[in-house]
């Protein structure tokens, strides 16, 4: 069934719509927004609402290659009915929207969404997006009852009206809730439908009598009223009306005015009425008595703030006004008489609150990255100037009482003004988690009233760790000592390293650095404990030098190295051994020349240990009953202890012992069988004891050898000149003497060539070199006296005479 609006209905609708728009502009604050989108209610979740990135045109200000760095973040405190994609900047719904549950009738249904736009960590802008939720015609008009009964008196005049209940539509938009009515009746029934609009937008319905009634002809009628909304497609409902012909109450109460406009100071008391409503009813008796009550269109907030006296029509303030967003309130009052059926009319009371209070401002902080309600998280490597939080300040006071300024005093963070009562918190200076893992900051705001009122909001900024500190060692070089010959897996020492980073960035892993040619008998654990993997031998290697590498498990991983020295301490695990004599027993023939013979030979031994464990002492253990021989305890030099005579000649079986200085003391023994001959000759005797070092040539010895070589070269040159002049006279004798001397020297070298002992003193070496030099000079003199003598024969002269049975002739070569 099609419905058409009559001209008077169109005029009424237009007038009502303009009135409501005007009231909305007066009663509601302007919701300024950067972007406005529209979405119908009832849409499924994840419905696209709008493209913020494209519509805000922020991308146009950024180079194309940097647009992918722009992110969009919905700030906490925004409506949770929507979500913003971080990279694309598109706005979607999160659930099915129901305009009727979110908004009230005849108001623009919208939600505000705050979106922070950043380029990497740099703040660009906070966009305030307004999303208008469009009402859908999802509710049909509904009458309170499906059937009502009314009564007409049979003597009622033409035009008599009886009120019937109107229909209500739960939709909140004007057109979806706009109801038109039509009477469905038989053509001969004397009734018409009368529709009039009230100030709250609802319709007052009544059945009008068009013709006189005759109860004797017809005492009851059944007609229908169809209510249809203005949606597309429209929805409708039907009210059955049972009409009885009797006398009825046909005059509703009438207010003195349709709209009451009242101004109210915020300090108005609760005793004095805010307003007094006045209504009258032309009926008499019960039909003329009426009462006042708030209609269903009055908001719950207004009901909480104001109370209405049902009998007198006085309106009082309930309690002190809690001024928030609204500074004006609408009260819809209905006057209903006691007739049957009751008649009613409505009036609207506009209460405008004049604020004379000076209330403290309130602070609302929305974080980009929230941890808890008053805690935000930032990364340790966050850049200076990065956006952290969006701050809104609210103060509804009038004049200077509502002017607010805010401050933030902190060395790491700064508050920047974004406009009227809007701020952002940014990073002022770089943060370091190792110095402080959180910061407590306070935002202070004050209005300009007298006296000024303050408020503060304390928030915490938690710093998340970044792996920016490499491990540090407690020492530049770690030195350890360990005894040799211990079992494997013995602890050597601990490498101490620390890393102040947290989490994986502070967890350390240790390893040993070795080259391809180096073998290390050690291992290291994660705690830095160095231990052996085998038994160590000081004699094999006494010192190990290597590096320890430590790294953390952060991303990226940081590392460090340190030098380590491990000294293997010697134990007395090697007994000394003789290097001369090399056989046991050893046979030696010695010829003693009185007053010129002292040194015999040098006993030598070695020890693989080091330090005190290799410090040797020599002793004659057996065979020296006559105290004929003496030995230097430290050099092993064997010599005569006194002047000998013919009675001392004979054989001597000497046993020698060498001991180290370790604990316990280790020793070795050897024997020398000496056949001693005592000569009566008193010629000068040269005794050469050659002492050489096992490892190196003593510097003093080298200097002496050079000086001797230079002296010998001069002597040889002079001797050759003299020898040429005397060669004819002395060739035979000199040749014979030279031959004997050379043979003797060769035999002596076979027994006297022994390794040097490291503990031989410098004075002893100098004494022996002096005797050696004398022997060589004497040999050169004898060679010079023999014509034609070869220069190489000077190497063959010696003090000791070697015999095939290892004997030494101590005769002095003249």
What is the structure about, briefly put?
The chain is mainly beta and 814 residues long. It has five domains: 31-134, Immunoglobulin-like, CATH 2.60.40.60; 254-354, Cadherins (Immunoglobulin-like); 364-432 and 442-464, Sandwich (Immunoglobulin-like); 472-569, Cadherins (Immunoglobulin-like); 577-808, Cadherins (Immunoglobulin-like, Sandwich).
Write the layout of secondary structure elements.
Layout: H1 7-27, E1 35-40, E2 48-51, H2 52-55, E3 70-74, E4 82-84, E5 90-93, H3 99-102, E6 110-119, E7 122-134, E8 147-152, E9 161-164, H4 174-177, E10 179-184, E11 191-197, E12 203-209, E13 220-229, E14 236-245, E15 254-255, E16 259-265, E17 275-276, E18 279-280, E19 290-294, H5 300-305, E20 306-308, E21 314-317, E22 328-337, E23 344-354, E24 362-367, E25 370-372, E26 375-379, E27 387-394, E28 404-408, E29 413-419, E30 422-427, E31 438-447, E32 454-464, E33 472-473, E34 477-483, E35 491-494, E36 497-498, E37 508-513, E38 522-524, E39 529-532, E40 543-552, E41 559-569, E42 577-580, E43 586-592, E44 599-602, E45 604-606, E46 617-622, E47 629-631, E48 637-640, E49 650-659, E50 667-678, H6 699-752, H7 762-785, E51 807-808
Parallel strand pairs: 1-7, 8-14, 16-23, 26-32, 34-41, 43-50, 43-51
Antiparallel strand pairs: 2-5, 3-6, 4-5, 6-7, 9-12, 10-13, 11-12, 13-14, 15-18, 17-21, 19-22, 20-21, 22-23, 24-27, 25-26, 27-30, 28-31, 29-30, 31-32, 33-36, 35-39, 37-40, 38-39, 40-41, 42-45, 44-48, 46-49, 47-48, 49-50
Helix pairs in contact: 6-7
């Amino acid at each position: 069934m099609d419905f058409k609006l009559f001209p008077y209905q169109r005029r009424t609708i237009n007038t009502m719509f303009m009135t409501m728009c005007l009231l909305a502009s007066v009663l509601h604050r302007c919701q300024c927004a950067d972007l406005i989108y529209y979405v119908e209610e009832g849409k499924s979740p994840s419905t696209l609402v709008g493209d913020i990135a494209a519509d805000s045109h922020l991308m146009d200000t950024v180079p194309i290659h940097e647009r992918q760095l722009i992110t969009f973040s919905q700030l906490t405190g925004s409506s949770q009915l929507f979500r913003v994609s971080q990279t694309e900047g598109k706005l979607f719904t999160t659930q099915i929207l129901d305009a009727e549950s979110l908004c009230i009738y005849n108001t623009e249904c919208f939600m505000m969404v705050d979106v922070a736009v950043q380029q990497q960590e740099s703040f660009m802008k906070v966009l305030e997006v307004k999303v208008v939720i469009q009402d859908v015609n999802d509710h049909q008009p509904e009458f309170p009852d499906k059937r009502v009964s009314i009564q007409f008196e049979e003597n009622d005049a033409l035009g008599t009206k009886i009120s019937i209940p109107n229909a209500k539509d739960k939709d909140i938009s004007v057109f979806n809730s706009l109801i038109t009515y039509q009477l469905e009746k038989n053509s001969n029934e004397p009734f018409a439908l009368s529709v009039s609009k009230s100030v709250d937008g609802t319709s007052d319905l009544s059945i009008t009598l068009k013709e006189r009634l005759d109860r004797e002809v017809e005492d009851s009628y059944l007609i229908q009223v169809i209510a249809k909304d203005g949606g597309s497609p429209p929805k409708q409902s039907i009210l059955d009306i049972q009409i009885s012909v009797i006398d009825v109450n046909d005059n509703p109460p009438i207010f003195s005015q349709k709209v009451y406009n009242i101004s109210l100071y915020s300090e108005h008391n609760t005793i004095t009425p805010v307003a007094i409503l006045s209504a009258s009813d032309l009926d008499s008796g019960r039909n003329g008595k009426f009462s006042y009550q708030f209609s269903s269109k009055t908001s719950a907030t207004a009901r909480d703030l104001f109370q209405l006296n049902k009998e007198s029509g006085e309106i009082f303030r309930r309690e002190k006004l809690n001024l928030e967003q609204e500074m004006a309130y609408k009260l819809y009052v209905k006057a209903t008489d006691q007739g049957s059926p009751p008649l009613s009319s409505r009036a609207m009371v506009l209460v405008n609150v004049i604020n004379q209070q000076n209330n403290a401002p309130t602070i609302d902080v929305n974080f980009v990255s929230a941890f808890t309600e008053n805690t935000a998280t930032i990364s340790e490597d966050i850049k200076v100037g990065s956006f952290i939080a969006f701050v809104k300040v609210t103060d509804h006071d009038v004049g200077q009482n509502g002017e607010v300024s805010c401050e933030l005093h902190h060395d790491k963070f700064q508050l920047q003004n974004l406009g009227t009562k809007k701020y952002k918190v940014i990073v002022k200076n770089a943060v370091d988690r190792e110095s402080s893992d959180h910061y407590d900051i306070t935002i202070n705001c004050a209005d300009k009233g007298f006296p000024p009122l303050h408020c503060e909001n304390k928030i915490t900024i938690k710093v998340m760790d970044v792996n920016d500190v490499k491990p540090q060692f407690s020492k530049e070089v770690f030195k350890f000592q360990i005894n040799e010959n211990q079992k494997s897996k013995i602890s050597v020492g601990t490498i101490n390293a620390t890393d102040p980073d947290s989490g994986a960035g502070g967890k350390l892993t240790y390893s040993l650095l070795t080259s391809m040619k180096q073998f290390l008998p050690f291992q290291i654990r994660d705690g830095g404990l160095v231990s052996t993997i085998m038994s160590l031998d000081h004699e094999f290697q006494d010192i190990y030098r290597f590096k320890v590498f430590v790294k953390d498990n952060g991303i990226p991983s940081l590392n460090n190295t340190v030098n380590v020295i491990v000294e293997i301490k010697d134990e007395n695990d090697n007994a000394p051994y003789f290097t001369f004599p090399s056989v046991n027993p050893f046979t030696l023939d010695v010829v003693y020349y009185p007053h010129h013979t002292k040194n015999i030979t040098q006993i030598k031994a070695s020890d693989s240990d080091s330090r005190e464990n290799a410090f040797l002492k020599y002793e004659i253990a057996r065979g020296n009953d006559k105290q004929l021989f003496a030995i230097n305890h430290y050099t092993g030099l064997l010599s005569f202890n006194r002047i000998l005579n013919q009675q001392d000649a004979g054989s001597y079986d000497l046993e020698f012992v060498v001991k180290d200085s370790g604990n316990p003391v280790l020793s070795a023994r050897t024997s020398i069988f000496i056949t001693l001959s005592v000569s009566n000759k008193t010629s000068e005797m040269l005794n050469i004891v050659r002492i050489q070092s096992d490892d190196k040539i003593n510097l003093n010895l080298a200097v002496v050898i050079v000086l001797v070589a230079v002296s010998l070269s001069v002597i040889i040159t002079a001797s050759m000149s003299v020898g040429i002049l005397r060669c004819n006279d002395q060739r035979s004798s000199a040749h014979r003497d030279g031959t004997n001397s050379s043979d003797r020297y060769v035999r002596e070298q076979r027994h006297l060539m022994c390794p040097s002992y490291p503990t031989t003193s410098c004075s002893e070496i100098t004494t022996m070199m002096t005797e050696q030099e004398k022997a060589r000079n004497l040999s050169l003199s004898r060679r010079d006296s023999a014509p034609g003598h070869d220069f190489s024969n000077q190497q063959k002269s010696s003090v000791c005479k070697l015999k095939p049975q290892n004997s030494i002739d101590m005769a002095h070569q003249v």
